[in-house]
Each structure stands twice: as C-alpha cells, then as structure tokens.
Design brief:
4 copies of one chain form a homotetramer.
Chain A lengths: L2 H19 L18 H20 L10 H5 L23 H21 L5 H31 L23 E4 L2 E5 L15 E5 L2 E4 L5 H9 L11 H10 L7 E4 L2 E6 L2 E4 L11 H10 L7 H10 L35 E7 L25 E4 L16 E3 L8 E2 L5
Parallel strand pairs in A: 8-11
Antiparallel strand pairs in A: 1-4, 2-3, 5-6, 6-7, 8-9, 9-10
Helix pairs in contact in A: 1-5, 2-4, 2-5, 7-8
Chain lengths: ~425, ~425, ~425, ~425
C-alpha cells in the first residue's frame, strides 16, 4: 500500500469503529454480560492503546502517554506489556468515561496523522508495517464490537434495537447440492505481497483427496429439521465434550433462538423476528456444527479443502455480505444454478481443522508474536468471514479460530462429503 | 406524622437520593464490581418501583405501570412479586438508561404527589403507613448507595474522587476508657408510636448483668497495633469461619487500606489519603471485630447491652456524624472527660448478637413480610448507624444486620467487658 | 469419677468405638462420599491420636510417637498441632490400613493402661481431667461414626445393610399436645462437679416468658402433611438462605427419603423400608425445621426454653433411645396421657438459638480451647441427644451445634408456642 | 489370531491385570484422589463388565447378569449402556468389595472359557472380533492401573512402595543428536490384517517435508536446564492455555518431582529417589512439552513425522521398555552411535498433532463407536507407548490421546526440527 493510501485507510478504519458505536447509549458502552464480551468502550480504547503503545511510543519524539493508567486498563492479553485489568473485570470499570475515551482516540489520531506527515523516510517502512498491523487489529475488534453489541442487546429484557430493520425481499429456496472438487497436491497459505497474519504462513503444500463441497451454507430450515429430529437429545451425534456442553449449558437451539407458541424467533440487531428458514444458520458452536454434520451423514470440510475450493472456484469478496453492507445478519442464498455461493461473508464456517501452526511456522518476536501463536491449542479454525467482517479485511487464506463451545460469534456450517 | 409533614418528608427523601448521585458520571451508575454492590441506577429505579408497586398500584385509579418490564428489572428479592433479574446480573443491563430512570422517578413522584393531594380520607391511614415504609426503605438504599459508590470508585484504577476533601482539623487523641453500666431486667425494643421495622418488636424484657462499655469507638491507631502484633497471622484470635475468610480472601487489613513505604493509606470518598490514627476503624468484618476484641482481651457488646447503655446514657443523634453532614467518613472522638461518645453515626458497631426474632416476633403478611424476617439466619446485628445513614432514619432500637464477612459497609468496633 | 471407674470407662469407651465398626468391610472404612463424612478408619485413628498427643506425649516418660506422620494424618482441625490433611482429602488416603490403625489403637491403649497403673499421684488430677476429655471426645466421634456409616451405606447403589432389622411393634399414634411451661428468671448451664464442655458454662440466669412446648417430637406423618401441602414449593415458609438451599440442592423431602409409586421409603441402618408415620421425623436441616414450624404456625423453642422445660419436668435419660440401645433409628412416642416424651435420645432437636458463648464465656487456653469456642458463628444449637449418642455422654445442659443446612445428622423437630 | 491363541491370550491378559494389583492392600483398591484416577477395584470390575455386557450377554444362552447393579457401577462412559456412577464418585463406593470383584472376574472368566470351548462355529468370527477388542480394552486399563496406582501411592503422606527397587546400573550419558528423515508422500495408518482401533484407519497418504528427529528422548537433565533457565516463569515459551495452567496449578516442575536442599527427587513405584539426569523426563503435560521445545528452539514432531520415521527406521518393540519388563519407570538411553532409540516404550511422546479423525474416518455403529471417535476434540496425540504399556498392545500406527494438561500419564518429549 502506498503511504497516501495507508493514511486514508487509517482514517477510514478509525472512523468506522466509531460509526459502529453511533447507535449506542452511553450505558451500552459499559457493560460486560459474560466474560467473552468486552464493553464497547473497552474495544474503542484498546485499539487506540495499540497505536499509542506500539507506534507512537516508538516513533513519536518526546512521547508522553495520554494517561499513565491506560496501559493497565486497555492492555488485553499482552504479557509483554505488563499487568492489566483481569478480563472478567472489564465491565466493572466506570472510568475512563466514554467521553474520555473518544478524547483519547482523537488525541492519538492527531498524533498519528502528524506522524504520517512528518515521519523521517528511514522509519517509514517499519511505521507502515506496524500501522497496517494496527489497522487489521482494529478491524478484528470491529467484528468483535458487532458480536458484543448483539450480546449486550439480546441480554437485556427491554430488548433494545440497534438499527431499524431493512426491507427483506422474500427469496425462493436455493436447494442444497454438492459440487465435486478435485484434490491433489495443493498450495495452502499466504505468499503474496500484501498483509497477512503470521498464522497464514508459510505457504506450503498439502495433499488432498477429491471431495465434495456443499454449494451454499446450511440453512435455518435444515437446522430446524435437526432439532425436530431430536438432535439435541441424542448423544450419538455429539463429541463427548460437546455432549457435556449441551447438558451443562442447556442448549436446545442456536444462541439467540427462542420458541413461542411453536414458532421460532431469532434476535437480530434490528430486534427479534420470526426465523427465516432460508437464511444461513448462525451462532452455532463447533460442537453443534459437528453434530449437525454427523446427523446429516456428512462432515465438515478441513480448512485446506475450504481454501482450495475457494481458490479454484475463484470466489469473490465483492459478492459477499460483509460489515460494509450494514446488514449485520446473514442473507439467504440466491436461487441459481448450483455454484459455490456464500463462501465469503454471511457467517464464518467451522472447519474440521484444529488451529495449529503451519509446517515451518515461527511466531514473531516480542509482543506482536503473542497475537496468534500462543492460542494454538484447544481451538478450531473458521474460514470465510461474516457479515460482521470488514470486506477488505478478509483473504482466502484468512484463519479465524475459536474454542469449540463459542456461540456469540457469527458462525455457521457448510458440509463436505 | 401528619399528612403535610409526610408529603414534605416524601419530597425531601426522594430528592436526597438524587443528591447523593449528583457527582456521578453516567458510567458510574451502571457497573456492579461485586455481587454485593448494585449499580446506582438500579437503586434509583428499585426504590421507585417500590412506590409504584406497593402504593400506586393499590391506590391509583386506572393504574398503569410505567413500563411492563420494570417489575422484572427492579424487583430486588421479593418472591411475592415474581421473577426478577438475578442479583449478580444487575450490572449487565445497560437499559433502562439513567435518563429513563430519572424520567421514571419523575413520573412516579408526580403521581405520588397527586395522591397526596387527592386521596380519599378513608385510604389515608394505610397510604401513610405504606409511604412511611417506602421512605424508610429508600433511606436504607441511600446508605447502600454510599457504600456502593465508594466500592465502585475504590475499584477503579483511575481512582476517581466523589467530593473534594473537607478541611479536617487535627484532633488530640481521646483516650480509651470503660464506663460502668448497671444491668438488671431491662426493656429492649420499640414500643412508641413512631415508625419502626417489625424486627424491633415486640418490646420485651431482657436480663442483663452489670458490664463495662468503651467510651468511644476503636481507632485506626489501635487497630494498627493489632495488625503489627500479627493479628492476621495468629489463628488463636479467630473464629474458625473467620480464619478461613482471612486465608481465602487474603485479608491483611480492613477493606480500603493500602500500605506504601511503611505508611498506611485509606480510600475515602474524597480520594486516597494517609490513615488518621484517631479516626474510628471502619470497613471491618464481624470476624475482624471479634478477633480484635479477643486479642484485646475484651469482647463485643450484645445488642441488648448496647441498646440499654444508649438509653440510660441518653445519647443524642444530633451529636452524631450522619449522612446529612456529608462527611462520608467517620470522625475522631472528641477529647473530653470520659463519656459515651460516637454511639450514633460514624460507623455501625458489630454486636455479639446473632440476628434473630425477638420473643413473640411474627413477620408481616405478604410481600412486606419478606423485608426482615426471612434474613434471620447466619447474620449478626449491628447498632448505631453510620456517616452514611440519614439522621432521621435511626432509632436506639434500630437493628442492622449483615453476614459476618461483609466489609464494604461502614462498620466498626466498640468493646465491652 | 474415681480413678478405677475412669479406667473402666476408658476400656468401655474404647471398646465401643470398635464395636460400632464391627459390621464394616475393610472397604467401608476408607471412603468419604461428601466432605462432611469422614472415613471410619480416620475416626478410629483420630480419637487415638488425641490420647497419644494430648496425654501420652505429656505423661509418658520417653514418649515416642507411634508413627511420625500420624500427627499429620489424624489431626482434625487443631491449628495448634500444626498442618494436617485437608479435610476433603481424608477419603483419598489408602494408608495407614485398617489393620495398622487397629494396631495403633492397641499400642496406645496399652500405654494408657500402663499409665493408669503407674502414673505418679501428683499427675493424676490433670491426667484424669484429660482422659475424661478424651473419652468425651471419642464418644462424640462414635456418634459421627454412626452418621457417616449411614451416609456411606445410603450412598451405595448396592444398598448394603449394617445390621438386621429388629422386630418393631406397631404402635398406636400418640397425639400432639402442648404443655404449659412457666417462665421467670431461670438457671441455664452447667454448675455441678461432673464433666461438661466449656460451652455449657458459666451457668447463668436467663429471663423467660411463659411458653408452651409440644409433648413429643414431630412425626413423619406430620412432616408428610407439610410436603403434601407444597411446603417445599412455597417460599413464604422459608428463611432466605433456606430457600436458596432448597433450590440449589433440590430438596423435596428429608435426607434418606425416596418415593416409589406414591409410597415414601426411608433408609435405615437396617436397609430401606416403608416410612412409619409415627416415628419422629429425622435428617432435617434447621431450615426445614424452621419452615415446618412456620407452616404449622408454631415456632422452634430456644435452647433456654428447652433446657428449662427439661429440668423442671425432670426428664430421664434412662427412658431415652440412645446408642446403647443399638436401634440406630428413632422410635415412635408412646401412647400415654400427655407428658413430655422423647426429650432425650431419638433425635437432636433444632432450637431457635444461635450457637454463641454464654455471658462470661472464656475459651480454654491452648489446643483444647479450639474445641468449641472457635465455632461460635453461623451455627444453631441442637439439644437432647439422639439414638446415635452414648447415653452417659449426654446432660440436660449439653449443647450440640451444626450449620443450618446439615442433614446427615440425626436431627428432628419439637415445636413451641 | 487363531482361536486357540486367542483363548490363551485371553487367559494371559486377564491374569496380568490381577498381577498388576497383587502388591496392593485392600484399601489401595478403593480410593480416587483426583477425578482422573479411578480406584483399582473399579478398573478390575469395569474391564470384566465389558466382557459380560458386550460378549456374554450376546452369545451366552440364558444369560443372567452377575449382579443387576453392576451395569450401573462399572459402566465408564458408554451412553449406549445407560446411566452410570458419575465418574468423580467412583471413589465413594465401598461396595462391591474387592473380594466380590475378584469373584465377579472369576465367574465371567469361567463363562468366557466355556464359550471358547462350546460356541457354535458360525458365531466364532464375531466372538473373536469382540474378544480381541475386549482384551485390547483391558490392556489399556492395565496401563491406567499403573498410572493410577502411582498417583494413589504418591498422594499418600506415608509414601508406600509398590515394588522393591531393582538394581540400576549407572549409564554414561547418550548425547542428543538429530537424524535426517526424508519426507515425501508417505503412508500413514493401519492397513494390515491384525487388530487396530478405528482411529488408526483408514490408511491414507500424507505429504511430509524433510525433517530432523532427535535420536533419543529428552532427559531429566535437559529438562532441569529448562527449569533453571526460568522456563516456568517466562510466559514467552508457553501457549496461552498452558500459561494459565502453570499459574492456576502452580506448576514448577513435572508431576512427582520434589526439591529438597537443592536436589531434585522423583516418586517412582519403588518409592522416592534422587533424580537421574540421564533418564527420560516423564509426567509432563503437552503444555510443558511444547514450552520446552520452544525454549530449546526446536519443535514437537507431528504424529505423521513420528510414524513415518518409526517405519522407515524399522524400530523394534522388542528393544523397548514395556510393562512386561516390570520396570514401571523409563530407562536411560544407551550410549551408542547416534540412531533412533527409545521410540517404543519408556514414555509416550506428545506430538504436535491434534487428535482428529483421518480422512474418511467413520466411527463404528453402536456402543463400540463411542470408544474413540467421540473424544476427537481438545486432545493431542501421543505416540510410542510407555513402560506401562503391554508390549503386544502397541503398533507403529497406535494413537494415544489426552488433554493438554494431563500429567499423571507416562508422557515425555522427543524433539524435531
């Protein structure tokens, strides 16, 4: 990216975070209903702290931190940067106020813009590298902001609404089909010039068998069949840990589903409404995705199968339903001749691949090395982005990862065979 | 109280709750750092819900609730009024907003004032009884508001300040002494016309031995001696449950104490400052009060001894340091000839009496019966009010009660022998 | 007690502990199904350790401990004697074996008998005092052995039987009645020569009102009425902590009750059998006793009322159903003219009194002071002994105490008014 | 295996389980110090229940269960076979007694032997298949018996000894070296006639890069260097979940290590003794193995690398240190020219591979399908067997699997590069 574009990218990403929060009341910025959810004001501060600590502190002559306690308050999990507020305590901090955090953002932005204008040429490559990193980091938190705002709203008995519902044309059903994908020795991972996380590298070869991939995402209607067939009551479909989760957490349906008088309703950021059977199922855990696949006598694709199929079928982000489209909800597949739809955007799909380092993976030195590598245990890979992902944040090689029982993320299912 | 006075009392109590919250930022109203603490906005709504549910619903023709979900949101623990937000979840609710709650207060107040003006004569006695109850209830929550705001501020690494520190004249030390109190068959409990809680009744006789009572509250300086003597490290001073609490919760000093470079500091609502050795010790649990007394080879008074001494020595609330004085902190005893000082206000004192019903106690029917009686197990009685208690809320017969390990209350120690 | 009697008492108590364990398989000695229950082999070792550590170590010339680790293994909760196995870990220790513990008992007994024969006259008074204490201590553990064996057997799906059922004559129902007991200034506590625990002293005066006391214990039949009336489903009968216990622990009936095809069954040490409606209800918590009393529109007596009534009605231990009778289960009241029955033996009754020190109470110095005083918080007093108590262990002034939610003890209900 | 051999195999496996338990006291059979550990008597009953339920029930005419409750008592985790004792409760059951369980074993063995003699020809293939499965299952529990007995003994403050220490010749140190292993498209998994678990199939091809594998296991001496370098105190070596485990569980060294006066000691089944620096490190979690590898700037091999290397280097089980050798402890590598030593036996090595199904994996129908497939989440693969594994139980394709934090297993480290 040339410097000018990067500066513009900086302004646009920074502005987008604030746009996402615009519909919130001050109180909405503060709460943390479960450990996984962070208060929106914390996200806004944390991404700013990243620029302050990683970039300003390094490049700004006579750097002075905006506030001496913010390193303690806004550090997420970087052991390298010292002690920090214990994660489940984020929602117990009334200060700094929302107003103070916006002031913090403005102050850091101003200094960043100044650096863009004035930084000596010799520092520019490293500066650009770190700014790019910081912006990708902020984009990830934009996605988390959407997850967390949805949870905060859904958790509230007054059932607040984030944005008015858009008109949604009733779509005909797109039938499920399986497309043949040829295997072989295929190339996996990132090897072009642009930005990618260290966990997408090194690019390497993987041996795949021929396989079949579902043309579209699994729908709510299909998932209701699983529920109606007693899917949540039959241990045979479930991994042992999954069956424990079903019982301990009392799962009967995806997160944000409620049944009233025989009709399923779902929470959306435009409030609760009737379940649309043609929309992709969303907010399922890996355990549910895996159980559904077993029940359907299919399986989840590996992350290598997914990436390979996406590459050879030449799927386009421009066709996907991303954060930029402000739907904040997955959309039904289009009724077309069978082709690979909904690969990018809508919902992340759980893969059958554990989140591990690629052959030859070495994590970055220092604090930035804590970003991906240290999470390589007990998590599964998701692929493809969601309607909460910024479109220009995604790549075909992008690896998202979460623990098997997480459901507040925008996660769904695509079957393989 | 005549009706006019009651209406004025209503206005004044309602206003006082809002006064207490005036220094807060909106964010401060929302958080719940520990289960014991409720968000200030919850207190403001809950006391209002009490008037709406107990009084407006009963006396208001064509009563309509302000919001159909508020009964769920603002019920504290009244099983009679149905399901409610689980207590530790209060801090997860961003809505209703602070602004909406103030609007709720205004709407309920307006209807209450209207009832004061228009209620039929025949309903007035019951109305007055319930309004009095509701106001005493709100006064109790004013005290809790002070506790909770202090905790919220102390919990915050940015160390916010609630009000500027007042000038504090340096007082000479008042020496400890023990006053002889004669025993006999004494009268305990409430039997006059005015308002009292059901747990202060029936008045009854108790047989007391002659005893000695300390002339003033135990001071920080005396408590530091206990600490320096290894009080927190020697199991012999402690009740078994207390010793467990010391170890599991890592107690080394009262709540809100911190040691830096050999000097103790305490959190006040005017920020952190050096410990004043002449101030009464505050924020100790029953276990600490009891251990201190054992270490000092004295004991805690029973609630009967305390009440009897207060009555025969004719102590005056007007001399005490109460919420009305806006100190929000206990003050040192005055250097005088030995007399019973600091019996009312400053800090509640833990007594050696378990919180149980008086002989002949019967709890009220219905929801209001849930107020006191159902808590009569595993709690100890405290007496005398604190600097967070409204002065006109207290009586000599007043019984406060908490579990033995609570420390966020304004609680201290007076010894007996 | 003269020395000769004491030596005989020693032999008899020591033998009785082993008698209680005679029906056990080795495996039964080892397990700890819940934290409250200790493995029988631990009890046998612990009471022996008490004699070894408190007496042999003091009086035996050239004392050598039987095993250097037994102080760690068999100390219960005496901080004075150093670190010890964490209570919930007792059931994780396979060694020492049962055989080794019996050898330990024999070795300590032999040395004790030798001391009885040879101890210098000047040491005899202190020796006698400590032996008496140790034997009372062992008698308390005999009672716990019965509780714990019952729990271990009831917990086992194979439903083992401890002893064959005795023939039980079917008794006619004894109707409930209330006897008038006059109040006044009454004497409470121990003041004679014989042994008593420090918590029964000092004897002192208490002012009582006139009251009524039920002639017999509450029966299973009466308790079933409470259950059938929805007693466990109506919060209004319950203390707040009790209601929490009902819900968290899923209480629907006393411990060891099971309902099959509409008929209640109870576990006894002679196996499961149909509930006898005339037997005293047993294995209820304080919360259940209190809720039952509220539902019956009566109340529990205070410990002072109980002791006073027992004294003036001259109740006799010789008529009671104690451990010596080897019923291991409470018996129905006799059908007679109304008189105070079942005051001693059968089941301990929960009183309305919190377990606190009497006026002037000072706990003993040193390790033995840890025996009673440190438990004076969050417990209620029970009175009267049970069918698991040795007859000669009990006194009218005897104070037993447990937390409000304990149910594995032989505890029941007598109402007052 | 021909039928005659199978019958002999049956007798020998069954006898071996009892041999392993021979040194135990009855009490040692009963306890369960942590959830992971099962009481030895439970293992002996459970493996017998497997033969009774899976084989006798199917093939025995007029089958009658030995005891109607044993299905409840001895089912481990098979949902297909109904409810069962909750795993952490296994150590709370004193009955059935050890004697009863040996009688159960004898009764089932007798019927099994009878079936071997008399079963109709047409049932023989399925019978053989299931007997083979049952024996492999029992062999796995033999290994667990060793783990669990070690834990039970180590947990006991009396420090019992399982067998007398064998003479251990002092070996010279074998230097670490890295052997080059060529990659390519390699064959992974089981495809011969003999028995294998479903998780070893289907055999399939994997693409491997060239890599280096350490010639021997990592030693205690090397691991002490990691400890001395502050390995347990530096977050940079650790996975995030691993760092949490270090802190929450207070890890400072492998399980069963203790430091006294600067010298490390280890628990063995022959009691505690000084750490031998040349022995393979044992009882480390995956997190510790991974952290050690990162600190050493190496990595753990994948399970595919391990299997490929073992196959092409033609390693022999006959050279390994297995259960049959009754060392119950790993042995030092031999000082030889660099070659691949200690691949089989001694300790299982943690691999970098998550435990997932091979391409095309389908789990068996019915109860036996619960054996492996349902555990395919949140676990890592271990390879190579240990000194607690029966020699004839192992194969090069054998996949063991445990959660990342388990340490009571005989697990160690071999590095790759």
């Amino acid at each position: 990216m040339n410097p000018f574009d990067l500066q513009q990218f900086f302004s646009s990403v920074r502005k987008n975070s604030e746009e996402i929060c615009r519909p919130l009341e001050i109180e909405d910025y503060v709460v943390q209903p479960i450990d996984d959810v962070s208060p929106p004001k914390w996200h806004l501060g944390h991404v700013t702290w990243f620029f302050e600590t990683v970039i300003l502190q390094k490049f700004q002559p006579n750097f002075k931190p905006f506030h001496k306690m913010y390193n303690f308050v806004f550090n997420s999990y970087y052991e390298s940067f010292g002690t920090r507020v214990f994660r489940p305590q984020r929602g117990t901090l009334s200060r700094p106020t929302v107003k103070e955090i916006y002031a913090y953002r403005a102050a850091v932005d101003e200094q960043m813009q100044h650096l863009f204008e004035t930084l000596e040429q010799k520092h520019r490559p490293e500066f650009s590298r770190l700014v790019t990193l910081g912006l990708n980091h902020e984009q990830q938190h934009q996605e988390l902001l959407v997850y967390d705002i949805k949870y905060i709203f859904a958790n509230n008995p007054l059932r607040p609404v984030y944005q008015k519902a858009k008109a949604r044309p009733r779509t005909p059903e797109m039938k499920a089909a399986y497309l043949d994908i040829p295997g072989g020795i295929v190339e996996i991972g990132h090897k072009t010039e642009g930005f990618a996380w260290d966990n997408e590298m090194p690019a390497h070869q993987v041996l795949l068998r021929d396989f079949k991939l579902q043309n579209r995402l699994v729908t709510n209607g299909e998932y209701v069949e699983f529920i109606n067939a007693g899917g949540y009551a039959d241990f045979r479909h479930w991994l042992s840990d999954g069956w424990t989760a079903v019982q301990e957490q009392g799962w009967q349906a995806p997160l944000y589903w409620e049944k009233h008088d025989g009709q399923w309703f779902v929470m959306t950021l435009s409030g609760w409404r009737e379940l649309d059977p043609h929309e992709p199922v969303c907010h399922v855990s890996f355990y549910e995705a895996d159980a559904f696949a077993k029940w359907a006598q299919k399986r989840l694709p590996t992350e290598f199968e997914w990436e390979h199929a996406a590459r050879i079928m030449d799927v386009k982000a421009s066709e996907g339903n991303f954060l930029d489209d402000r739907n904040f909800h997955p959309l039904p597949a289009q009724a077309t001749a069978p082709r690979l739809q909904q690969m990018l955007g809508d919902v992340w799909v759980w893969t059958a691949s554990a989140y591990l380092g690629y052959p030859g993976y070495r994590q970055e030195e220092g604090a930035l090395g804590e970003y991906n590598g240290k999470f390589m245990s007990n998590q599964m890979v998701l692929r493809g982005g969601s309607c909460a992902t910024p479109r220009d944040h995604l790549r075909l090689t992008y690896r998202n990862f979460f623990q098997c029982d997480k459901r507040w993320i925008f996660s769904g299912i695509r079957l393989a065979d």
